[in-house]
Amino acid sequence: MYDTDVTVWSPEGRLLQVEYAMESVKQGSACVGLRSNNYAVIGALKRSVNEMASHQKKLMEIDHHMGIAIAGLTADARSLAKWMRNECLNHKYVYGEPMPSKRLCDDLADKHQRTTQTYVRRPYGVGLLVASYDEATGPHLFQTCPSGNIYEYFATAIGARSQSAKTYLEKHYESFPETEKDDLIMHALRSLTGCVQGDGELTKENGSIAVVGKDQKFILIENDDLTVYLDRLEVEGGAADGGGDDDAMQE
Q: Span 44-61, mean pLDDT?
């Protein structure tokens, strides 16, 4: 009764359509993000509908200094990614410099929030991790929510079975500021290993990593490029474990 329209409040003071959208994020494939003083890294697990299908793309480039990881409805994410790219292009055309990531993420949060106030559109059923590097302020990691909230983190994870990744990141995030790029990538892969479903393993087919940072344009690392890091992970034999809370990692 109270979930037929996004503008209808339930007697408990809840917007059920917004909560359903947030549940879509929780059921999406896991994504992780972390940053140091010089780099921001995002990683994701890619899903395949069956053995004969390719894996869905979970990391997208927005500009040479920014990229996103998605959990939830991929079609909604593509629509938001297209809008973000246009915003970056318009800003660069007018001001002659890359768009500050905080400004774009604030505008993105407003775009999310507007869908919760009108019956014309449903909320976006996707959560984003936005990794970026600004020349003035350094690396950033933002998380967006279908409700219109936005958070900045040192490290976090979203999606299905992401709790084990959060726990791993909680244990190590205090060492991230001085961590070099390759070690930061390894931390991302270690946290993802605990998010793989069942007896599955993290492979070059279902894993994906992206890096952006100082003197480093956004670059996607997957398939054969990821094998070097996966071999190193196999030698170490490290993985994440479950439990914990993520408030400490929020900036």
A: 87
